[in-house]
Design goal:
It is built from 12 helices and 7 strands. By secondary structure, the chain is an alpha/beta fold. It has 2 domains: 1-37 and 284-311; 38-273, NAD(P)-binding Rossmann-like Domain (Rossmann fold). The two termini are 24 Å apart.
Length: 311
């Protein structure tokens, strides 16, 4: 029993060392790793155009602006015609690049013939940013029959799963065109919810887990064709969808997040894309590990004691 207690006494120390390791790894990844392995500068030689879905606002707008800043022409895709036209105009005036827009609801399977034609009409595509998605009803419990309706479930899945998959399929031929020489990117926006899976968000989290899993499969499939796949899993970003204000440095603006994420392009295939989001995930993993260790301790020591009291 003495040796067992000695082993248990080591757990807090091991937990601290694990936390320290995770922190140091994140720091090195976002400093030395970024300096040595970032592929952001390769985007300009990977093609003439970037295609960004969900580009009228939020993270999509942030990526559109950052990619234009790097000298890429931008095809902006969104259902909000007025919003995407304004973003396209601002980008053209500020960064002196070409812009085009494709107005469509990507949750509608009927739009993808036109979407494919728009992409195929571009000279070459450096990257597709699969950002379009929805969190509609994500804060509503699955068991709430009034708020979590069949229509709201279908909308989330049609856009986050079907839309993501079909947008990729529609653009894949253009991405693969001479890809071995250009090495373009398929950039997919998942969510940290794909990793931590909060129990109150089953539909949204599952849809973002699909994006992560599909991306991993595509990375293997497309590697031989020369297309590189990057998946980002952001935490809270100050967007209209998230309904949170920017709180620097914890909650970045869409532009701040996009700049950080693109700086981390190619450093890690699956990345939070933002240092403080990485720390959020580290904290979650540490707390989850601590909870599991507590459960083990309780089963080993308190469980038998409680059983004895009941008898």
């Amino acid at each position: 029993m003495t040796s067992l207690w000695w082993a248990i006494s080591l757990l807090p120390k091991l937990g601290f060392l694990y936390l320290l390791y995770c922190l140091l790894y994140s720091i090195l990844k976002y400093t030395l790793g970024k300096a040595l392995f970032s592929k952001r500068k390769q985007l300009k030689t990977a093609g003439d155009w970037a295609v960004v879905t969900g580009a009228a606002s939020g993270i999509g707008r942030g990526f559109s602006r950052e990619l234009a800043k790097d000298g890429l022409n931008i095809l902006l895709v969104d259902v909000n015609a007025e919003g995407v036209a304004e973003v396209a105009r601002n980008i053209h005036e500020e960064f002196k690049v070409q812009t085009k827009t494709f107005i469509s609801d990507l949750s509608d399977i009927g739009c993808y013939k036109g979407f494919k034609e728009a992409v195929d009409g571009l000279s070459s595509v450096a990257c597709l940013v699969n950002n379009a998605g929805t969190a509609s009803g994500m804060n509503e419990q699955f068991l709430d029959g009034e708020k979590c309706t069949f229509d709201s479930i279908a909308f989330v899945i049609n856009l986050n799963v079907l839309g993501f998959t079909c947008a990729t399929k529609a653009a894949i031929d253009k991405l693969c065109d001479d890809a071995a020489a250009r090495r373009p990117f398929l950039i997919n926006i998942s969510s940290i919810n794909a990793l931590i899976k909060p129990r109150g968000l089953p539909i949204y989290s599952a849809s973002k887990s699909y994006v992560k899993t599909m991306s991993e499969g595509l990375a293997t499939l497309l590697a031989t064709r020369g297309v590189r796949v990057q998946t980002y899993m952001p935490c809270a970003v100050a967007t209209n969808l998230a309904q949170v204000a920017p709180i620097w440095p914890i909650i970045p603006s869409p532009e701040e997040y996009a700049a950080s994420a693109l700086d981390m392009l190619g450093v890690e295939e699956n990345s939070c894309g933002y240092f403080f989001h990485d720390l959020h995930y580290v904290a979650f993993r540490v707390l989850l590990t601590a909870r599991r260790l507590y459960d083990i301790w309780y089963i080993m020591f308190k469980g038998p004691e409680d059983s004895t009291k009941k008898e």
